Amino acid sequence: MEDLVKKVLYTGVGMAASMTEKVQQTVNDLVDSDKINIEEGQKIVNDFTKTAEGKKAEFESLVKDLIERSVSKLDLVKKSDLVDLQKKVEKLEKELAK
Q1: Distances from the Cα of 89 to the Cαs of 18, 58, 78, 83, in angstroms?
Q2: What residues does each domain of the chain span?
Q3: Residue 7: enclosing H or E segment and its boundaries?
Q4: Average pLDDT of the chain?
């Protein structure tokens, strides 16, 4: 399951990086053809990058929520819950040994 999550996140990050490169190339072409100036082009790229970062965080949050809901439906135990339970058992075993 963890591998699937990583693949989904890496795919999203890869798509965002690809889009950023394409936007940068388009802006460079517009600057080279004197349709926009360098400052306007940089603003476009910066705005796109900020928006993409926000969408990336939103995407990661959605994936995380989806996974947590899926895991809870499967009635699986979280590792942290298992560790807590193991600590309690060890504590009780020590008390019984006394």
Answers
A1: 50, 39, 17, 10
A2: 2-97
A3: helix 2-32
A4: 84
